[in-house]
Structures are given as structure tokens and as C-alpha cells.
Amino acid sequence: MAKAYEEIADELRAQIRAGRLGPGDRLPSESDLVRTTGRSGPTVQQALRVLQAEGLIEKQHGRGTFVRRPRTPIERTNARHQWEKDRARAPERQRLGTGATERDTGLGVDDLVFHAAYREIGASKEIAAALGVAEGTALVERTYRTRYSAERNPFSLVTSLLIRDLVQQNPDLLDETKEPWPGGTWNQLLTVGIEIDRVEERVTARPPTVEEADELGLPPGTSVLVLRKTLYDTDDRIVEMSDVTLPGDRTEMLFTTHLERW
Amino acid sequence: MAKAYEEIADELRAQIRAGRLGPGDRLPSESDLVRTTGRSGPTVQQALRVLQAEGLIEKQHGRGTFVRRPRTPIERTNARHQWEKDRARAPERQRLGTGATERDTGLGVDDLVFHAAYREIGASKEIAAALGVAEGTALVERTYRTRYSAERNPFSLVTSLLIRDLVQQNPDLLDETKEPWPGGTWNQLLTVGIEIDRVEERVTARPPTVEEADELGLPPGTSVLVLRKTLYDTDDRIVEMSDVTLPGDRTEMLFTTHLERW
DNA sequence: GAGTGGTCTAGACCACTGT
DNA sequence: CAGTGGTCTAGACCACTCC
């Protein structure tokens, strides 16, 4: 015999999948479910917890439990890289009004709120290995938060690392007050004579940490996409590495790979 | 004041992050925690549930609660596409002994167990839109499961769709008993004169459904990576679309984008 | 104030693991 | 068999939302 909370969860899940309960609809209240199922409060709650962990429902304290509504997706393509490279050499006037995020979202600079902070750190063992430098090497750690001006939470958490020796010949690159930098990282690197040859992106997925869920405003039952982006210059050196955390329920990454013709 | 279960969870999380509790270590038993914290059983359980949802711990009925151990990752690169394209034209002898999965995992054919099933379906509205065909168009739906022979669960769930009209001139392509096909889908398509020009991959992340968690053997507190791969031929037609579900805790996808030189 | 979900208690019994 | 986590009950009180 199935467990009581599973029976309740199965019943509700079936109703959602069949469309009898659609996105945004309110589920029966917990006390209703206690009455109709003849089960205790905690048992009903466990059933709802299961559905919440699956990302099917969302509880709203004091209002009720609702079928989760899909969020408007943000698309992020790898065509952006060639676009960013080209833009790095564009005249400043052109670089000012637009960034890669604006390109992804189709929005203007005014619709987005941008925040950056710089800090100098020494490379930890793990980071040193990933960057191919010695442990303790001086790095510039830059953290970025970007959000829609209409929303409370950022839609990505970015930590970027530069090797200080490579960039310090331009002191502006160590100064966070110069952000947002027209033309972004790619233009910053150009000012110290660096051209990017290729981008490597490593993607994994996992549940958010409490801190990530908090910063991104993620409800229970969502995942994050974790992207580690590495920029290689034309001498095959790693010149930047960044970790990007994206909400899994609203991010779609599109990678296009072109192949040689026969 | 913080909630009781959060205090307990915070304390244990801090111990794990500090390394005082390492991967594979057993946590204090629930009854121990009831004694040491002076809280009730359900409260302690809720604290552990929080950590489980974060993917930090794993409960084993009758044995105890353990710090989650990272699983051996499977890497999947987009360099595989050019490799698959090249292999599609290789002599059969060469195609027999190796596939893209073997390439990704570095294993031989004997270490992997392969299963395929074919079915004919009509295109649903959603699928028709994604494939760019009319609703109801005849499709060949192929489902694949591949697992390590040493493990019980497959490491990916694949559903592939072909447009029947495009492939039926070679009846072997409608016959699941011809699987595993040497040279895979790319060679199958070559037999009906199709050359692939580019691959589009859309990646998102979410918690697994119950069915996915069951098939992939995923413990609570893991996510799945969902990949929708679309193959375009040299006439810019969509010739295959597949949905791949991968365990987020053991899959790393690597995408390399090469850029034009200045 | 009525209705909702959130937290917590005290305790019972079951199911699984290892000795 | 002892120890572990899994399920379930009956009920209390709190916190939030909306009217």
C-alpha cells in the first residue's frame, strides 16, 4: 500500500498534469485537505512539500498554495561571444549604450540596474589550478549583480577573476568606480593589448545554496545553472575566469556549434 | 530569533563547510540531535530535510545520515559534434567499436549497456512548432538509455525525434532492432543523403520529476540538466531533435566557442 | 477577524541495517 | 536485537494576508 502523503501528492500531481489545476490556480487549503483526505495536518503538509520540491507548486504564506507559473525566460547564447569581441573595438559612443546583457534580454540600459565591486585576493589552490597559475598569485576579484529595474532580485550572480599582473598596466582596470565599463571586460582586456581567441564554458546544475536562493529570490523547488567561463587569448593564456550562477527556472542557454562541410 | 530547525541546520551546515564533517562522514543520529539540542524529533528532521534539499547530506534508512560524496563526473563537450560528423563517414569497421558516449566517458563498448526503442507518433502542437512542421506530421520517436555495466541506473534519458518522410526511404531507419547503429544518428542520416551543418543545444535546469529521479536513481537534493539538441542540415532544415535529461550532480557540459581573429 | 500556511511538541509505531 | 531513519497522529500557537 502506498504511503498516505504519496497518495495525496499523486492525486494533486495528476490534477496538475491533466490541467484540471492550471498555472496560478489555488490548491485546496491545507485544512480542506485534512478534511477531505481524513489525514493529519503534518501528513498533508508533507504531501505538499513533495510537490514543492518538484517545482510544481508554490506556497504563499497567508494566501494559499498555488500551481507554479513558468517565469519569463532569459536567453543566453554563445553567439554573444563573437558579438562581444566585435563590440570591444567599436567606437566608445557605440559601446556606451549597450552591453551583452542588454543584447540577451532585448532591453535598454535604463531597464537594468548594474552593480560591481572589486577586491584583490590571492589565488587559492583550487582557483590557481583552474587558472594555471601559482598558488597565491595576486588576482582581481570582481563581483557583478544585474537586475531588472522592475524586480527586486538580480537574475545572475557573477564572480570574475583577472590576473593582476596581466592587467595592472592600466590602473583603471583595478578601479571599480570605472564600472560599468563601456565595452565590458573584452574592451578592458583590449586596453592592455589582449585579444580573445576562444571561450570555454562549463555548465552544471544543482540546488541553490541558501545564500544563492536568497540573493536570487528563488523559491524552493528550483535549481541553479552554474557556468564557469574561461577566456583564452591568442597566446593560449587564460586571461579571465568567471563563475556565473543563473536561476534554472528562467534561464535558457543556447549553444550553436557550426561544423565543417564535407 | 531564528527558528529552531534553522539553528540546527545552520550549525550542521557550518560544520560541513568547515570540513569538520567531510564527505562520507556520518552525522549524529536523529535521536542524538534530539538529546543535544533539546528539540523534538520532527524539528530535528526538518533541519535535516533542509540540508538534504541543498544536496549536502544523504539519508540512508537504517544506517544513518551522511555528508554527500561528489559523484564521478561525466564530461560532455561540443567538440563531440565535429567528431560525430567525421565518424559518420568513417569505414564501418571503425564505426563499430566506438560511439560518442564511449568518447565522452573514455570507456569501451563493453563497459556500457545500451537500449533503444522506436515508436511512430504524430507531432503534438508543441513539438510541431519546435520542429517547424505541421501538427500531426508523422514522426519516429526513439528513446535511448545508456548505463555503465557496473551501475544500475542509466546516466542519461534520451528521446529523439525524426521526421518520417525524411528518413523512410531507408527502411532500416524505422527498425529498432538495427540498434545500436554503427556511427549513430549521423550515419543513419547520411544513408538518406543528409549532411549536418550545425547543432543547436538549449540548456535549462530544474528539479527532477519523480519518474526521472526514479529512472536515473537520483537522491533528493539533486537537479537535472535538460538539453534540447537540434540538428540542422545543409539546407537549413531541422532533421533531428532530441531531448536529453542528465543528472546535474555528475554531468559537466563543456562548450568551446572559437572566435574570428582581428 | 477569518482564513491561510509555518513552526513546534510528545509520542507512537513501522521499516530497514547491521551485529 | 539494538539502532537508525520513515511515517503518522492530535493538537497548540504563531505569522501573514485580505477583507
Automatic annotation (TrEMBL), chains A, B:
Coiled coil regions in record: none
Alphabetical UniProt keywords: DNA-binding, Transcription, Transcription regulation
PROSITE patterns: HTH_GNTR (PS50949)
Gene3D superfamilies: Chorismate lyase-like, Winged helix-like DNA-binding domain superfamily/Winged helix DNA-binding domain
SUPFAM superfamilies: Chorismate lyase-like, Winged helix' DNA-binding domain
Alphabetized InterPro entries for the sequence: Bact_HTH_transcr_reg, Chorismate_lyase_/UTRA_dom_sf, Tscrpt_reg_HTH_GntR, UTRA, WH-like_DNA-bd_sf, WH_DNA-bd_sf
Positions of the HTH gntR-type domain: 2-70
Keyword match Transcription regulation: yes
Pfam families: GntR, UTRA
Location of the region described as Disordered in the Swiss-Prot/TrEMBL record: 20-40, 79-102
UniProt name for this protein: GntR family transcriptional regulator
Organism: Streptomyces durmitorensis
Highest rank taxon of the organism: Bacteria
